[in-house]
Amino acid sequence: MVFRSLFSLFSKDLAIDLGTANTLVYAEGKGIVVREPSIVAVNRITNKVEAVGGAAKEMLGRTPGNIVAIRPMKDGVIADFEITERMLDYFIKKAHGRSSLVRPKIVISVPSGVTQVEKRAVKDSALQAGASEVFIIEQAMAAAIGAGLPIVEPTGNMIVDIGGGTTDVAVISLAGIVYSHSERTASNEMDEAITVYIRKKYNLLIGERTAEQIKIELGSAFPLDEPASMEIKGRDLLAGLPKAITITDAEIREALADTVNVIVGAVRTALEQIPPELSADITEKGIILTGGGSLLKNLDMRLKEETDLPIGIADNPLDSVALGTGAMLKDIDLLRRISLD
Q1: Residues 6 or more apart from 271 whose CB is under 8 A from it?
Q2: How many CB atoms lie within 10 A of CB 198?
Q3: What is the pLDDT, as a whole number, of residue 6?
């Protein structure tokens, strides 16, 4: 009995939302215990990991030549296998209080449409990082579960999960995905679009963190009720000196137009391709948005105008995928039904 209680102490299962921008780890019985940027700072000379997560993000754009800040995830999948493995190892140990005795069962969510090679890379990384068993589920399914949609009922549920690297659009019924599409355009592309726009219009080079802050404060997909502006700082590409300018929400809306159009297009394509019976359900129930990108101001209004359907935002859009993935730790029968081979 004592042995069994000790074993359970060291076998807390985990669910991981392995995102391009951020990684969230859900521990059984505790909820979300890790919420960190998917970034690793590595010393090029020694190959030693100097920092992971938030500490590594603080180094972006500020590291000396021998230290490089790496994002090992690109478009929702592994771009750097070795660094992802080291990042997962760090997050798993952090979730378990640095214990190296843990061999948890892990559920990981991935974008719709990932290849067999990409799924294998995710699974192998988790196993190498200490998992005893790994289940892979689609992020759209996890987001729908986390958003509280009745996925096991015989009705259509449409979810649009806009993460850092991908936008996943799916229609779910009877615990199965009837339609899914993953567009590798999401929040990170919004940041890049802002950076390019400001560089072209003002000859001003801004950093990654500045672009993200502009998106949060001024970004919108539909005109705001009250115009807004903010001062930003960067490096003048002509003079080579620091410079400050003021930009408006209208400018940033223009910068984001192409990215938003891709997301809107993905939703319209899904609506055109699903069976009529499910279309009727969605006409009545509407579309639910999740993910950090769903927080772009007035994106719901833009989609409502484009589709003429009710558009809702999940109660906890940043955590929907992690919460849905975590819910599977307690429902093994459903997990086995929805997990990818």
Answers
A1: 279, 282, 307, 309
A2: 23
A3: 40
**Range 152-313: architecture per CATH:** 2-Layer Sandwich (3.30)
pLDDT in tens, 114-130: 888 888 888 988 898 88
Task: Outline which parts of the chain fall under CATH 3.30.420.40.
Answer: 2-141+321-338, 152-313
Its CATH architecture, for the domain 2-141+321-338, is 2-Layer Sandwich (3.30)
Nearest to 171, CA basis, from 147, 144, 146, 153: 144
Whole-angstrom distance, CA of residue 329 vs CA of residue 335: 8
pLDDT digits (tens, 9 = 90+) for 246-300: 999 999 999 999 999 999 999 999 999 998 889 999 999 999 999 999 999 999 9
Polymer length of the chain: 341
Q: Which of 109, 123, 135, 112 is nearest to 13 (CA)?
A: 135
228 alpha-carbon distance from chain centroid = 27
Angle between helices 81-95 and 116-128 (to 10 degrees): 50
Q: What's the pTM value of the predicted model, to 2 decimals?
A: 0.88
Which residues partner with 181 through β-bridges? 169
Question: Identity (one letter) of the amino acid at 309?
Answer: L
Using left for φ > 0, alpha for ψ between -120 and 50, and beta otherwise, residue 35 falls in beta
